[in-house]
Amino acid sequence: MIVEVVGGADERPEVRVVDVDDLTRLHLALGAVTDGEADRVLREAGLGRVQDAETGILDVAALRSAAAAQASTEDWDRRWDGMLEYAGSKGWLVDDGAGLQVHVESAAGA
Q: How many domains does the chain have?
């Protein structure tokens, strides 16, 4: 799963949750936006925040809601739970489990 922050209509950044059926990976992909713009649009969408240039924190409940609405596999809920269990074992759950720490990647190749 990928949470993308990209330039949208009228050069206003927008956030999208894509590849929701692939629960073997999760990262935050930033297009041609600044960290500040990405942080703002993530917070406005209720999906999380940018912690620094390499790390984002995603809201677990909001991400699940956004992703589940697009999921197309019958066992998605079970695999989501497995992904969270794995993340917890790696210490990636933060804010008492309400947040999920993810790696930030540049989708713009910058």
A: 1
Instruction: For residue 4, give Cα distances in angstroms to 19, 52, 69, 91.
Output: 10, 16, 16, 23
**Which domain does 22 fall in, by range?**
2-106
What confidence score (pLDDT) does residue 110 get?
43
CA distance 15 to 77: 23
Rounded to two decimals, the pTM is 0.91
In angstroms, the CA 70 to CA 100 distance is: 20
Least confident of 5-19, 62-76, 85-99: 5-19
Strands (E), the chain: 2-7, 13-18, 27-30, 48-52, 55-59, 93-94, 99-106
